[in-house]
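Q: I have 303 residues here and want to know how they pack in 3D. Can you give me a structure?
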Amino acid sequence: MSDIPVGTPPVPPGRHAAPSGWYPDPSHQGQERYWDGWQWSRNTRVSEGGAPAPAAPAGYPAAGYGQPQQGYPPQGPPQQGYGQQGYPSQGGPQQGYGQQGYGQQGYQPGYPQQQPGGRPGQAIMTADGVPLAGWWRRFLATLLDGLFLTILSTLVSLPLLLPLVDRLTAYLAEVMQAAEQGQTTPPTLTPQDLMSTQERLGLGLIGVGIGLAYHVLFLRLRAATPGKMICGLRVVPVDQGRSREALSWRSVVIRALVWVGPGVSTWIYLVHVLDGLFPLWQPRRQALHDLAARTQVTRVEHR
C-alpha cells in the first residue's frame, strides 16, 4: 500500500470521471492502483511485466498520460483557483498543474481519464478485478425469478384462489340465466363479491412472505437466486468479487426487504421500479437494494 490517501481531485471542467479499472499509481512507479469510478481505492498491485501505460484517449496529449507525477495531490485542491499560476498542492509546488487549462497542451493528469469506448462514470469491475453484471442480464434474471415466484405463490395460495373460481362460475351462470329471461341489465359483480378484504390481504402476505424467503435463503446458501444462477450472476460484498464466503444474514435480509417490500402496496410500487432501473446510471451498477445491503452483482463466467 502506498501513501496515497483515498480520494480524487475534483472532476476537471467539461470532463467526466473515468470508468473504474486498474491504472498506474500516481505516487509509485511500477505499481497500479484501482480507480472505482469516483476515487482511488486502497487496492494496489504490481504492474504486470512493466506493461506500458494506457494510450491517451482522444482529445488528450500523449505525453505524460497515465504516468506517475511527482507531488500530485490525490485529494485535490479546492475547486476555486483551477487554471491559476502557482496554485499550491498537498505535495508542494506542482510542475504543470494549474498552469494551463484542462485538456490543453502540457496537462499531465495524475488520475485516469475516460478511455476510448468507455461510458463516462461507468464502473465495470469490482476493486479486485471481477466484471460486474450488465443491466439487461440482471433484468432477465429478474423476469425468471418473477416467473418462479408466481408459480410458487399460486400453489401456496390455492386455498384462497379456489373459492374465487367458484364465485366467478356462479356469476357467469347468473349472467346466462338473465340473458335467457330477456333481461337487458346483467347482474352486478363487485371486487368485494369476488374476494373479501381479508382474502386479498392474505394473498398479499403470502406473496411477500414467499418472496422474502426465496431471496433470503437462496442468497445465503448460493449467493444467487435461481434466475441469477441461470444467467450466470452472483451477489458479492462490495468490491469483493472473488470472495467465496457466504453473504451475512444481515446483508441478505436487508437486500430482500428493500427489493420485495415495496410489492405490498401499489402506492409504493414505483420505488420497486426505481430500484430496478438504478443500476443504469449508478457507477458501481448497484440497485437500491445493493446500496442498502452493500452488495454488487458480478458475472460468474469471468471469475
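Q: Anything worth noting?
A: Strands lie at 21-24, 31-35, 40-46, 233-237, 295-299. The radius of gyration is 28 Å.
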